[in-house]
Amino acid sequence: MSPETYAQVSNLVVPTATVIYALAMMSHALEWAMNRAVSGTAAGDAAVVAEKPAEVLVGSARVQDVVPSSSSSSAVGASATTASGSGASDGASRGADRADAASRIGLLLTYLAFVLHLAGVVTRGLAAGRVPWGNMYEFSITASLAVVVVYLVFVHRYKLQWLGLGVTVVAAAVLGLATLALYTPAGPLVPALHSYWLVIHVSAAAISGGAFTIGGLVSVLYLVKSRAERRVLAGGTMSPSLKRLPSAEAMDGTAYKVLAFAFPLWTFGVLVAGPIWAQYAWGRYWGWDPKEVWSLVTWVVYAAYLHARATAGWRGRRAATIAIVGWFVFIFNFVGVNLLVSGLHSYAGV
């Protein structure tokens, strides 16, 4: 096919992937809404049904069915209680089944969107005759692809499908913004980008950035789940939507694993390969360009996160807060510096 045909294919499949990510997002949103409906059903029968603590798996675990409490009352009273408890249990079970189905559909749609997304990035590169990382549009479609890649890898390794809503929101939003506001026709690279260091530097930054995003989303959900767990300890209740999530402790460990994977990759790709490329392109390793400064700030925040966990034993809310701050710093480095700040990396915004 000709470069023009590749460009047309890319321009078709990228918006299509955006729509399918949006459908996956809606499916995962429906999953959470169904769990809230399960919560309402269970609450209506709380007077006669004792809720059994849920056993939440790391993956898309089902909310444990409620079971009737035992009593030494009369046979008629016990029979009525059992019947009421059975009805509540059946309703909760049906709601949980529907939520599971919505979760599976959302994951399947994410896989389909990922295939189209990958095809859009590849055909964009074929249309340009180079790696598709020469401007902000291409950075956006590649970085969002990296987020989905990291998510799908960790779905298989750590059963992270409960993170599907957050990931599909990010993917649909970034692709939608790229298509509507950042699109640039495929063209040649500016001279400074003509180097194999482009592949090393940008691919490492994109993958680690995807992992930073996953770690940030997990940390946000950790704060929500840990607050719910504290409310339960104080005598409150937890919605089935949150019961489907892993424990706060498990999510804290997952965030650490993701960020511990991303940090050395960011260190190599951005703070080692980047300066080497700068020496090749501009004749100096480090010049305190705004992009270089914010890349260093991003590294410092995540270094502080890992250092605090390793030496001070920081866990839980303090560690999650640092991870979220690091995520926002990375987002500003990726978007704000490219679009709002003038510097040697301003070509990334064209």
Automatic annotation (TrEMBL):
NCBIfam families: cytochr_II_ccsB. This is C-type cytochrome biogenesis protein CcsB. The chain crosses the membrane at residues 6-26, 108-127, 139-155, 162-184, 196-224, 258-280, 292-308, 320-341. Residues 133-345 form the Cytochrome c assembly protein domain. The keyword RNA-binding does not apply. It is found in: Membrane. It holds the Pfam family Cytochrom_C_asm. It comes from Kribbella alba.
